[in-house]
Structure formats: structure tokens, C-alpha cells
């Protein structure tokens, strides 16, 4: 690669970095503005908006509610997605393509259409709007991502390890628990964090299937109706920091797990 191409790629890279991070930095800074209105310049600074987030019982309750929904949806989607991935990977049977296509379909349907469909189906099944309906919709939407990640990991599993376990008398269940499952832990963890963040950030399905208690994205949307304010920036910043911390921890932990597996 010549010098001109390197300079071009470097410019494109830094332009992309600025495009992603500058709005986030501005959002964080606006949370320190000593005014109820968004705009520059910031003449005085305050921590009141951020301290107010942690002092507001409604916001903390909504944050915990969203986290509980995300955890439950993630547990369900990981269990179902891992089972489907193990069923499909490396096996040929009639209907495999159809099962795989139906599995990944929820990830391809536009969010608004998916939310409307879930709302209609929930009413048909008699499921009341609320936490259960949201968890159900989030879990169905997240399953395809678990399947794809786990299948990719399974495709690299050395077949010799399973064959050796079976030669030593291990039945399929024991071989799965002692060989396959430990090998899948990094992929399962990565998929779990991805699903957790997807569910926590999901607005459309939460809005259509939610009851009287809103999730954090729905609460932010409700506050936006009265106009943009530094309070909204502070709430969004706190959510951003929490999700970024979880993502960084998961990425480092997954790397360490991958190194241990290869060793």
C-alpha cells in the first residue's frame, strides 16, 4: 500500500471517529449546562443534572426495570438460541434450511412491523401489555443473533475432541457438557452482552408492548415531548457509561477466555 492510500484511509478513519464520537461528547457536555435549554455556548457548569438522575426515584426504578427486562430476555434468548445452534450446526436433515430461515427472520423484519405484529399476537394470545410481553418480544428478536454467534463458534470446534470423548465412553449429553459447552462459553458470553444491550436499548417493541411502567428509552421519549433539556442528556449519558462499561468488560473477558481455550 503506497503512502497516498494510507493517508486516504487514515483520513476516512478519523472522519468516521469524529462522526461517531463528537455527537456523544456534545451530549455529555450538555448534561453539565447550568440551564434548562440546550445550546451553545455553555456559560456556566453544574453537576445538578447528573446528581438529579441518581436522586430521582422514578429514573432509578425505570433503570432497574429496564435492566430486569434485558436480563430475562437475554437468558431466554441465549438458552433457545444455543439449543437451535447446536441442533443446526454440522447436521443435515430435511427442513434444516427452513428452520434456519425462520430462526433468523426476526432479525430481518423492520422494528416497527415487528412491534405491531407482536402487539396483535399478544392480544390474540391474551397477553397483557407489560413486562412479560416485552421480555417475550425482546427474546424472540434476540434469538437470531445468539444462533449466528454460537454457530460461528461451533464451526471451529475440533471434531477430534468430541470423537475422543465418545471413544472414552461419554454419551452425547456428557460430551456436550464437558467439551462443547466450555468451548462455547466465550461465544455465549459475547452473544449475551450483545442481547443485553439490544434489549436495554429497544424502544419500539417496548413502546408497543409496555404497560403503565415505561422502560428507560420510553421514559426518555416521554420527556422529549416537553422539549430537549440537560436532564435528558444526563440520563442518556448515565445509560451510555453503564452500557459502555459492560461492553468493555465483556470484550476483555471474552479475549481472556479465547486465549485460555486456545492454550
Automatic annotation (TrEMBL):
<dbReference type="InterPro" id="IPR051789">
    <property type="entry name" value="Bact_Polyamine_Transport"/>
</dbReference>
<feature type="transmembrane region" description="Helical">
    <location>
        <begin position="232"/>
        <end position="250"/>
    </location>
</feature>
<comment type="similarity">
    <text>Belongs to the binding-protein-dependent transport system permease family. CysTW subfamily.</text>
</comment>
<feature type="transmembrane region" description="Helical">
    <location>
        <begin position="63"/>
        <end position="86"/>
    </location>
</feature>
<feature type="transmembrane region" description="Helical">
    <location>
        <begin position="98"/>
        <end position="121"/>
    </location>
</feature>
<feature type="transmembrane region" description="Helical">
    <location>
        <begin position="12"/>
        <end position="32"/>
    </location>
</feature>
<dbReference type="GO" id="GO:0005886">
    <property type="term" value="C:plasma membrane"/>
</dbReference>
<keyword id="KW-1003">Cell membrane</keyword>
<feature type="transmembrane region" description="Helical">
    <location>
        <begin position="175"/>
        <end position="200"/>
    </location>
</feature>
<dbReference type="InterPro" id="IPR000515">
    <property type="entry name" value="MetI-like"/>
</dbReference>
<dbReference type="InterPro" id="IPR035906">
    <property type="entry name" value="MetI-like_sf"/>
</dbReference>
<keyword id="KW-0472">Membrane</keyword>
<keyword id="KW-0812">Transmembrane</keyword>
<dbReference type="GO" id="GO:0055085">
    <property type="term" value="P:transmembrane transport"/>
</dbReference>
<keyword id="KW-1133">Transmembrane helix</keyword>
<feature type="domain" description="ABC transmembrane type-1">
    <location>
        <begin position="63"/>
        <end position="250"/>
    </location>
</feature>
<feature type="transmembrane region" description="Helical">
    <location>
        <begin position="133"/>
        <end position="154"/>
    </location>
</feature>
<dbReference type="Pfam" id="PF00528">
    <property type="entry name" value="BPD_transp_1"/>
</dbReference>
<keyword id="KW-0813">Transport</keyword>
<protein>
    <submittedName>
        <fullName>Spermidine/putrescine transport system permease protein</fullName>
    </submittedName>
</protein>
